[in-house]
Amino acid sequence: MYKNFFQIIRAGINTTFQDQGRKNLNHIGIPFSGAMDNRNYLIANKLVGNDLNSPVLEFAYQGPLLKYSGKRINIAITGDVNFTIKNNNTLINGNCYQTYLLEHGDELDIISTNKSVYGYLSISGKFDLKYQWLSCSVNTKANIGANEGKKLEINQKINLLNINQILNNKTLNYLNTKIENIRVIKGTNFDYFSEAGKKTFFENEFIISKLTDRMGMRLEGSKIENLVDTNIKSEGLIKGVIQVPADGNPIIMLSDHGTIGGYPKIGVVISADYDKLVQLTPGSKIKFKEVELSSAETLFKLYELETQNLISQI
Q1: Model's pTM, two decimal places?
Q2: 219-234: per-residue pLDDT in tens?
Q3: What does the alpha-carbon distance between residue 261 and residue 269 come to, in Å, rounded to a whole number?
Q4: What is the DSSP letter of 130?
Q5: For 31-187, where are the alpha helices, taking DSSP H only?
Q6: Deepest in the core among 44, 115, 130, 213, taking most CB within 10 A?
Q7: Domain ranges, ordered by start, for the chain
Q8: How far is it, in rounded angstroms, from Cα 91 to Cα 193?
Q9: Is residue 255 packed enough to be buried (19+ CB in 10 Å), middle (13-18) or exposed (0-12)?
Q10: Surface-to-core class of residue 166, CB atoms within 10 Å of its CB (0-12 exposed, 13-18 middle, 19+ buried)
């Protein structure tokens, strides 16, 4: 019998379990998935003393309202998030990147993200989840992962295991920064596009449309001219690749992307910029900036070093 659990009073808009995703399954049509903002995911786990690949709750825009039952636990929320903790008649306005104690009967209200998309909730213990291909990451398009591949729902119960009784208070001084210039390397079909089309891609602003989710980010702006063919034989896709369909508006493939696609690929977002890209809300303006592969590799090494430095400060 479970003694530690969350009762979901409000599920939020898109609340799912995520870890670091699945590897080496593209050949059978299974995408990587995993946490959209990897740095905030890792920091969340480190704050509560978990293994860095432990599952967390990822939420978008509006998060869940949870009532806790059980032994005392620590929780942490990362991102740019408004949340409160209700303890009897006391209401605490929470701060991100800081641990908080939850006791039996407390309510955690993750009200909203603040001018961003994704936030993360970690606990000093483990969610009781079923793994699929060595990961619990939920892909709602394919119904893959924990919770039968579905978002959380109202009145659902989340059972907890292995509560960590070492409840140290931890804080990280970290500020999420915005990004407007998204750095990319050339895609495999870069030469399909006219000189005017390439100029449009690199010099014009694009607006993130409302047709954006964990699978992909659709952009709106000046049409990118294709001189060769707006359709190709389906080829493998990776996270961050930028396809351009016949309407000339780019689509950036995100964590739950399909593993093959038949639109020409003009570029690929570098890994160092991915976390900040996915946090941009619909209506945000972005521009693309070309970098060489060697620069992208260096920038990723710097990103990883900065992430490890942040984790070591906790």
Answers
A1: 0.96
A2: 999 999 999 999 999 9
A3: 17
A4: -
A5: 38-47
A6: 44
A7: 5-161, 181-312
A8: 56
A9: buried
A10: exposed
